[in-house]
Amino acid sequence: MLVAEKLPVSTMDTQNDIIRQRQTARRVNVRNAKIVILVGILLALVVCNVVVHACVIRQDHQLKYWQKMIDEKERELVKLRIEIAQLESFDRIQRIAQNELGMRDAGPMDCYLIKSAPELKKEVFKSDYVAKTPTNTGLWNKVSGWLGGLGRTMAKNP
């Protein structure tokens, strides 16, 4: 049989052992805390990534919806332009004028020449002012002033 001998334990050794155990426990706790923080940060990044992808998918869906609406409106615009072209056609207008409004094609006796009313507004030319200025008292200046507007006046009369 074995017998264990009881050795005296010093109080310093037990205190050192307790301090060492606490230090290793703190190291383990600090290491575990760092791991937990790192995992938390990674999870937060994953959640942010999922949110960003959800936003991108939503924007893509909205973009496709609006592109579809634009294409639909462009098709409608083309149809309306075709309809406008048909409504503006000369044959349609002529048919409506003859059938619904009772108009007919103009013959040679339907055309009349109408003289325009004479223009009541009197035009003033620079030559009128030149003849009236006291500095231009020479004979040729007066004749030039009188005859200067003659060509313009003749061009205005029919």
Note the beta-strand portion: under 5%
Overall morphology: elongated
- What's the Cα radius of gyration? 54 Å
Please give the number of β-strands.
0
TL;DR?
The protein has helices spanning 11-87, 90-99, 126-132, 139-148, 150-156. The protein is mainly alpha-helical. The longest helix is centred in the first third of the chain and has 77 residues, at 11-87.
Helix and strand layout, with pairings?
Blueprint (H helix, E strand, L loop, with lengths): L10 H77 L2 H10 L26 H7 L6 H10 L1 H7 L2
Helix pairs in contact: 3-4
Which descriptors apply to this entry?
158 residues; mainly alpha; 5 helices
General description of the model:
The chain has 158 residues and is mostly helical. Among the domains are: 22-90; 122-158, no CATH class. It is 70% helix and 0% strand. The chain has helices at residues 11-87, 90-99, 126-132, 139-148, 150-156. Helix 3 (126-132) runs antiparallel to helix 4. The radius of gyration is 54 Å and the shape is elongated. The N and C termini lie far apart (153 Å).
